[in-house]
């Protein structure tokens, strides 16, 4: 248990940051899963629906931007953010 005032404050700060990071990571995973499922359904469907492709493009930009913002906030390290973006780009290029 913390004894000094500064260590108690540090515990509270760490809890806040841990919660914030957890929420941000969860949103990033959710967006990534949504993108992957949309691309898989587009590829397996075989139809060349322009509205679906536009939705995929919009979601790709959103996921990439969110991943970069997660990196800039210090939640992900640079290589992890780059890896995620690269995987999404490869999936997007299959269209």
Structure commentary:
- The protein has 95 residues and is mostly helical.
- Helices cover 84% and strands 0% of the residues.
- The protein is built from three helices and no strands.
- It has helices at residues 5-45, 50-72, 78-93.
- Helix 1 packs antiparallel against helix 2 and helix 2 runs antiparallel to helix 3 (78-93).
- The longest helix is centred in the first third of the chain and has 41 residues, at 5-45.
Q: Which structural class best describes the helix and strand composition?
A: mainly alpha
N- to C-terminal separation? Answer: 55 Å
Assembly state of the chains shown:
single chain
User: What is the helix/strand order?
Assistant: HHH
Largest sheet: none
SS element count, helices: 3
Helix content: over 70%
Cα-based radius of gyration, to the nearest Å: 18 Å
Uncertain spans: none
- Shape type: elongated
Tally of strands: 0
| Beta-strand content | under 5%
Average pLDDT, all residues: 93
Compact description:
With 95 residues, the chain is mostly helical. The chain has helices at 5-45, 50-72, 78-93.
List the helices and strands and how they pair.
Blueprint: H1 5-45, H2 50-72, H3 78-93
Helix pairs in contact: 1-2, 2-3
What labels would you give this structure?
single chain; 95 residues; mainly alpha; 3 helices; 0% strand
């Amino acid at each position: 248990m913390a004894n000094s005032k500064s260590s108690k404050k540090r515990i509270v700060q760490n809890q806040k940051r841990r919660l914030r990071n957890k929420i941000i990571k969860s949103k990033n995973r959710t967006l990534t899963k949504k993108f992957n499922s949309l691309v898989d359904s587009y590829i397996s469907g075989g139809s060349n629906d322009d509205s679906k492709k536009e939705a995929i493009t919009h979601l790709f930009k959103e996921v990439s931007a969110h991943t970069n913002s997660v990196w800039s906030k210090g939640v992900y390290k640079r290589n992890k953010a780059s890896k995620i973006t690269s995987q999404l780009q490869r999936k997007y290029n299959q269209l």
